[in-house]
Amino acid sequence: MIKLKYFIPLFILFCLAISCKENQASQTTINQDLIIDLNKLNNEIVQFQKLVTTDQSQKEIVEQFKKSRLAYKKVEWAVEYFIPETARFMNGPALDEMELEENKSFEPHGFQVMEELIYPEYEITNKEDLVRELNIFASNIKQLKSTFEVITISNDYVLDAVQQNVFRVIALGITGFDSPILQTSIPEAGESLIGIPSLLQRIDGNSKTLADLKKLITEAQKYCKNNNNFNAFNRAVFITQYLNPISKKIKAFQKEEKIQNVKKSSPLKPTAATFFDKEAFDVNGFVLSDAHNFTADKATLGEKLFYDKTLSKNNDRSCATCHHPEKAFTDGLKTNVSLNGSNLMRNTPTLTYASLQNAQFWDMRQLDLEKQSVDVIENKDEMHGSLKDIHAQILLDAEYVKLFKKAYPKTAKPEAWQIQNAIASYVRSLNAFDSKFDVYMRGEENTLTNQEIEGMNLFMGKAKCATCHFTPLFNGTVPPNYSKTEHEVIGTPKDISGKALSPDTGRYLYNKMPQLVGAFKTPTVRNIAVTGPYMHNGVFKTLEEVVDFYNKGGGKGLGYAVDNQTLPFDALKLTKKEEQSLVAFMKTLTDKKYQQN
């Protein structure tokens, strides 16, 4: 028989053991939590389906749509990171997804398609399509649950996915990219951040950095709640005072816990503490192989080749002939001029930041800078040179041979592909990230005026510029994955009179798909103050003219028949003051070396 004095300690130990087992049982994994949240999302979708099938009011349907989107935002960090193919058809743009290699297109699905069906007016004729979309969405939830039941989510991937989610909020969340009509982006941004502390708490719940992060996120959510008007929301404040500090704390937590960066090929470096770090982007993100990686010696060689007129057939034209350094590597002409003096179809684009896109030329016909350079060199209207002949000349030039040996020490003599790679490397050296905007966002200088900050908020808000020109690169390469560069159909006029559309069919020249008629690459807005005239055909001389065109809804807004226009064609209703602020902001994107111009 056990004496009482021994029984009590044994009983306590027994209770503690039971308690520990219960706690262990109650501690779910990240995968299990995701499945729980997906079940909650599914419940919202079921309720959504019920309201639609029973013909409830538009108000009830819209409110349930909003609840469903908020539920999705809690799992978006993982869905977008681990299963982006499915994410595209749950919360992607309401535009056809195209597989150009196979000449196929796929109709869009998901929240943005639903949004167009229920708002601003919900017609009963849309009921069948809406039910269909909800059924597809529910099927995608099942697929996500099946995937998260089997994949392993390690700490390094958690940190990378969470960091990318903060960047997604900056570039897509607060700009209205995925809520273009209802404009519920601000409360959704707050919801996207809510799960970060609980995820990191699994790694180290006692971390002081985590405690600071929790406080920051609580304050960020409060800011969203108190400032939930989409057009009035101050994105400059939200990014610099909340999102950038949150991003830094996540990176600090990672270092504190000694968690390695995820190794992957991307132009966005995993070492970036914020989206706006001077060294946040890697020009090797889109290179063909490690052998093509950027080096300073390659760029030095490439610069010499860039200014060498012997690359052209008649030794009278170099790359610099059409890409002037003082004009941010454009030529200031409406359209380029051919070798015989006639005008070509298209405007010369800037080479600055061109390395941070995975498509080159207005029609996106080449995917990398290496192919872009040889395309121009051998084009009969531009340089009419021959890579084979240039290679032969270089082999006979002692100075070039020496430079090639320094740039490519592993090869015995210059090779043809190295000519392309060297020129491309020089182009990859042209990204400065030192504009007024950059130093402001990094907190180095309080450089932006009230008008410029208003312009930034318009750019990322009411004016919808940032839904195509994504912050912080301000081009069409979609963050934070940066796996594709977008094109747009905006209905550009033929000339300033505005009486006819441009006859240039853009991407359709190479891919005969009706969606691509008049489609052109979304270029960077960086250095735009010195790279006019604007558009693929140089139709607009000033930024004021460009803003006016967009303000009116592009070509379709002006009354042109542009059935495949991807640009929203409703008037933006910007005031003259707002138009001026928008132009003032775009001018802050000029790198220091071009500011005097």
Automatic annotation (TrEMBL):
It comes from the Bacteria. Gene3D superfamilies: Cytochrome c-like domain, M75 peptidase, HXXE motif. Residues 297-431, 450-590 form the Cytochrome c domain. InterPro entries: Cyt_c-like_dom, Cyt_c-like_dom_sf, Cytochrome_c_Peroxidase/MauG, Di-haem_cyt_c_peroxidsae, Imelysin_sf. It is an enzyme of class 1 (oxidoreductase). It holds the Pfam family CCP_MauG. Its EC number is 1.11.1.5. Coiled coil: none annotated. GO terms for molecular function: cytochrome-c peroxidase activity. Its main location: other. It is found in: Cell envelope. Residues 1-25 form the signal peptide. Keywords: Heme, Iron, Metal-binding, Oxidoreductase, Peroxidase, Signal. This is Cytochrome c peroxidase.
